[in-house]
Specification:
Pfam families: Ribonuc_L-PSP. About 25% of the residues lie in helices and about 30% in strands. The protein has helices at about 50-65, 85-95, and strands at about 5, 20-25, 25-35, 75-80, 105-110, 120-125. It has a six-stranded mixed β-sheet, covered by helices on one side.
Length: about 130
C-alpha cells in the first residue's frame, strides 16, 4: 500500500518533521492541530481556550478537506489539554462541530505542556 502525504497551505504548516496528514488506503491520519493561524503562523486566542478550540477544529477541517474527507468521516480523535479544568468548554465546542452525531471515539488527556504553549491540541483519524 502506498501512503499519500496530505499538504495544504490553507492549514498551518508542520512545525516539525511530520506531515499535516497521511492517507493510507481509505484512512487519513491527521496530525495534532493547534491554534495556529495558517497565514500568519501566529497563535489565535492567546490564553482563550474557546478561541483556540475553534481554531483547532477549523484547522482539522481544512486538512480533512484537502484529503477529500470531512468531519463526518472522523472515527477517532485524541484531545490533549493543558488544564482539564477547561474540559467542559472544549467538550461543548468540539461537540458542536459534529452536530447531533454520531460522534467519533475519543480520549481527552491532560498534559503538562503543548507546542507553543497552547491550551489544546487535537488529532484525528478519518475513514471512508
Amino acid at each position: 500500500m502506498t501512503n499519500t502525504i496530505i499538504q495544504t497551505s490553507n492549514a498551518p504548516a508542520a512545525i516539525g518533521p511530520y506531515s499535516q496528514a497521511v492517507q493510507a488506503g481509505s484512512t487519513v491520519y491527521v496530525s495534532g492541530q493547534i491554534a495556529l493561524d495558517p497565514q500568519s503562523g501566529q497563535i489565535i486566542g492567546e490564553g482563550d481556550v474557546s478561541a483556540q478550540t475553534h481554531q483547532v477544529m477549523r484547522n482539522l477541517q481544512t486538512v480533512l478537506t484537502a484529503a477529500g474527507y470531512g468531519l463526518q468521516d472522523v472515527v477517532k480523535c485524541s484531545i490533549f489539554v493543558k488544564d482539564l479544568g477547561h474540559f467542559g468548554t472544549i467538550n461543548e465546542l468540539y461537540g458542536s462541530y459534529f452536530g447531533a452525531g454520531p460522534y467519533p471515539a475519543r480520549e481527552t488527556v491532560e498534559v503538562s505542556r503543548l507546542p507553543k504553549d497552547v491550551l489544546v491540541e487535537i488529532s484525528c483519524i478519518a475513514v471512508k
